[in-house]
Amino acid sequence: MQAQLRKSLPQAAIAWFLASPLTLVLAGFLVLPIVMIVIVSFWGATEFSIYPAFLFDNYEFLLSSRVTYAVFLNTAKYALVTWAITLVLGFTVAYFLAFHVRSLTWQVALFLLCTIPFWTSNIIRMISWIPFLGRNGIANSALISMGVIDEPLEWLLFSDFSVILAFVHLYTLFMVVPIFNTMMRIDKSLIEAAYDNGATGFQTLTNVIIPLTKPGIVIGSIFVVTLVMGDFITVRFMSGSQSANVGRLISNDIALLQYPSAAATAVVLLITVLIVIGILLRFVDIRKEL
Amino acid sequence: MTETTDKTTQSTRKGVDRRSFLKGSAAAIGAAAGSGAITGFPTIWAQNIQNITLRQFGTGVSNLNEVAQKVKEDLGFTLEMTALDSDAVTQRAATQPESFDIADIEYWICKKVWPTGNLQAMDTSRIANYEKIVGIFRDGKLTPDSEIAQGTAPHTVGFTSGPGGTDFVAEESGWMTLIPTIYNADTLGIRPDLIGRPIETWAELLNPEFRGKASILDISSIGIMDMAMVCEAMGEITYGDKGNMTREEIDKTIAIFTEAKQAGQFRSFWKTFDESVNLMASGEVVIQSMWSPAITAVKSRGIPCVYQPLKEGYRSWGGGIGLSKNLTGLELDAAYEYINWYLDGWVGGFLMRQGYYSAVPETSKNHMTENEWGYWFEGKEATDDILSPFGDKLAGAGEIRDGGSFYDRMGSVACWNAVMDENQYMVRKWNEFIAS
After folding, report:
1. Taking CB atoms and an 8 Å cutoff, what residues of chain A touch B89?
2. Quick one: which of A262, A287, B137, B383 could link to B180 by a disulfide (CB 3.0–4.6 Å)?
């Protein structure tokens, strides 16, 4: 049967045929919408309608506004800080699971434990911080009754602190999973060899484990950075609407029917994120490593 | 034309004698009147109307399932309700006219949406209670000697030149854009227990005493008005028209608030009703822009909260029902029936018992107890517990409504929710304010 098919169709045709379902799905649900967004970003808008045109107004306004730069900077700040914290946390958790927990059963059990919070919606996980961190919330009343502070800490909620806290809470798992996955595939004999050659624990970490975990780190970083840069709801709720990131800029525009302006912002954001991913991929050849 | 008339008259004379003709028509009139008296509405086409479904969408305030149920009971047709936030409502009314039959929108949204031609003008001669509609929605005057407030006052966008008109006219032209349904006067909400002193002016929102404990709503078109009320009360800016600011006025207003924001005046901004309730109830915020039912929601948790009347007056808003241009024939008749039913009093009573006002208060009175009417409308002391339509206790005997009677509250409106000529500029500045 297979031989027959091979005979009747040339190799290349089979390859194209097998790839076509995914190509069609990606073309219809990824490429086409992006093309639409790019096209609309050149359109014009009145207060309640949009009209086809080829204008650079949207980009001109976007790129000449001081606010755009401030907001992109703020977005980058959130992404960078969240990335650094989730990396340290994620790496540590994955390291513990992969190298300190010896039995596979426990590894699986503890790994599942990490995922339990993710059984609830991420909006709920985020909002549940609000009563906890509030002025009269559990955190403040506990600290006051312990005598650590006299006045409630105002910066716990509706601040950059709470935004980043929520991001870390929401996205650390996206770092743990790929790092844990690559660590599990490190040949244990390499680590034994390092010990045998007299490497200290720290030297083994920096010379053996981290280089071999790089693909996992990069994949995790891509997850976290893209999620944080594309977010708008976490920033809105946790900053009490007082801070802005690019996602909020877009959502405000959409709410006010300014689709072309929203599309232009989305295009700029897309380019920024692609550049970041491009840089990350310079560090490791994912196709080779996987 | 004359010829035909003559012929008809002649044939009538010939065919039926005068006596039986009179008898017959009297019976027909009697039947029609009788059926009208029973249900309050003509039932001549009641058979077909059963199958009609009207799709209504609007903001949460008046899109209540109780109304849809009552429509089914009283009028026989089905009303499907969709509740959206005001941005989404504007968007849908402006861009998807096929997706609705009835739009329940605010007057400032009407100013934006009407020029698109997605709504059709309504013939006031088909509105039974038109003459009883409050003056605010007709000539703009609550009482003959009251002054018209700034902003998008409902009567300025309430009438159009005729069927098919996409303009607004100043006089009562007989063609209405929206039939008014619900309105209220908004002010600041405060936590009297946490403030501990009288609050009398909008300027208190930026009083450094409340640093980190104030809030304002993050809906640009309404937020800018609250800001203007504050800036004017502080004596910082005198506006030509708060509802239609110049670029310079917008810049100054936003600058004052940006400075306050950077000094940490605001704890948070809110966008949804629930957020405003939670901020107030948890004590995160002690003074903020608020909507009347949110005050009720805080109070019903047993937390003191006052809808504080302020000396500069209220920021008011009004909503109404508009008909999609796609409504025709029987469905259009059904929509008119619905409008007439809406103004007939039951809905009015239902809304007024939540603290809103109805466009035809005198018909609503029939659906309220004397105590309720006294408390909500006349600003009298409650003689007994005041319950919401959902059964929650809102006030006890001896309490009076914040701000007093209908004429006290609606009589001191300083400005109406509005959409400005410089709206796009204002929105951009608003975004800068949020991002600063």
Report:
1. none
2. B137
Contact A256 B427 (CB under 8 A): yes
β-bridge mates for residue B182, sequence order? B319, B358
Q: Do A241 and B423 touch (CB under 8 A)?
A: no
Contacts for A288 with CB less than 8 Å, ≥ 6 apart:
none
Judging contacts by C-beta atoms under 8 Å, the chain B residues touching residue A136 are 282-283
Region(s) of chain B under CATH 3.40.190.10: 46-185+316-367, 188-312+405-435
CB contact under 8 A, A244 and B94: no
Count Cβ atoms within 10 A of the Cβ of residue B393 and give its class: 0-12 exposed, 13-18 middle, 19 or more buried. exposed
Pick the closest to residue B341 from B79, B27, B47 (CA basis): B79
For residues B150 and B416, the answer to whether their CB atoms sit within 8 Å is yes
- CA-to-CA separations, A84 to A12, A181, A225, B400, B420, in angstroms, rounded: 45, 20, 10, 57, 45
Cross-chain Cβ contact B423/A47 below 8 Å: yes
**Rounded distance between C-alpha atoms, residue A248 and residue B430, angstroms:** 13
Q: Within an 8 Å CB–CB cutoff, is residue A67 touching chain B?
A: yes
**Cα A208 off chain centre by:** 26
Cβ within 8 Å of B, A 120-149: 130-131, 134-137
Contacts of A29 (CB under 8 A, 6+ apart): none
Q: Residue-wise pLDDT tens for chain A (290 aa)?
A: 455 555 567 888 888 889 999 999 999 999 999 999 999 999 988 766 778 989 898 899 889 888 889 899 999 999 999 999 999 999 999 999 999 988 899 999 999 988 888 888 888 888 889 989 998 889 999 999 998 888 889 889 999 999 999 999 999 999 999 999 999 999 889 999 999 999 998 999 999 999 999 999 999 999 999 999 999 999 999 998 888 899 998 988 887 778 898 999 999 999 999 999 999 988 887 776 66
The tokens describing B146, both together, are 């009251």
Amino acid at B30: G
Nearest CA in chain B to A240: B268
Residue where the block lists tokens 């699971």: A97
Q: How many CA atoms lie within 13 A of B372 on its CB side?
A: 23
**Residue corresponding to tokens 């426990």:** A106
- DSSP for B159-219 reads B-SSTT--S--SS--SEES-EEEEEEEE-EEE-HHHH-S----GGGGG-GGGTTSEEEE--
Domain at B46-185+316-367: CATH architecture: 3-Layer(aba) Sandwich (3.40)
Q: How far is CA A128 from CA A121, B82, B283, B294, B299, in A?
A: 11, 28, 17, 21, 23
Q: What residue segments make up the domains of chain A, in order of their start?
A: 67-289
Q: Which fold has domain A67-289?
A: MetI-like fold (1.10.3720)
Q: How far is B84 from chain A (nearest CA, A)?
A: 12
Q: How far is A272 from chain B (nearest CA, A)?
A: 19
Q: Check if the beta carbon of residue B76 is closer than 8 Å to that of residue A30.
A: no
Quote the tokens at residue B195: 């403030």
Minimum-distance CB partner of A47 among B261, B278, B424: B424
The closest alpha carbon to B379, from B394, B401, B396, B364, belongs to: B401
Half-sphere exposure of B403 (CA within 13 A, CB side): 28
